[in-house]
Write a structure and sequence with these properties.
With about 120 residues, this protein is mainly β. The chain contains no helices and ten strands. Helices cover about 0% and strands about 40% of the residues. Strand 9 and strand 10 form a beta hairpin. It is globular and about 55 Å long. The chain starts with about 20 loop residues before the first strand and ends in a 9-residue tail after the last strand.
Length: about 120
């Protein structure tokens, strides 16, 4: 799978709405409807790796890092636009807004219930 950004002008580096550790739900593709935890965020290619989503079998040879070779399940990245953040308060998939706190911190906010997502 191609993970390189497209050629052309410098892409606009847009912040991804999810962070590692977030719970998300997949909204398109073969894993639509699955929920999982974000393992990795790849901002350069606007992709995220989600636990249990886009899993394929990989054949691994034993080496210094992996003592036991064999066939293992490996998650691949999915496009960040194909996942929605699951709100901690209302437990629904939601879009996020940004709220600026009194101390100047920018936190994400659930657009569904209005609850602050980051502390
Ligand atoms: Zn909410």
């Amino acid at each position: 799978m191609a993970l390189k950004p497209r050629h052309g002008p410098e892409p606009v580096r847009k912040a991804i709405h999810v962070r590692s550790g977030d719970n998300v739900v997949v909204i398109s593709g073969k894993d639509r409807g699955k929920r999982g935890k974000v393992l990795r965020v790849l901002p350069k290619v606007n992709r995220v790796v989600v636990e249990g989503v886009n899993v394929s079998k990989t054949h691994v040879r034993p080496n210094q890092k992996v003592l036991q070779g064999g066939i293992i399940d490996q998650e691949s990245a999915v496009d960040a636009s194909n996942v929605m953040l699951v709100c901690r308060s209302c437990h629904e998939p939601t879009r996020t807004g940004v709220q600026i706190l009194d101390d100047g911190r920018r936190v994400r906010r659930c657009k569904r219930c209005g609850e602050t997502i980051d502390r």
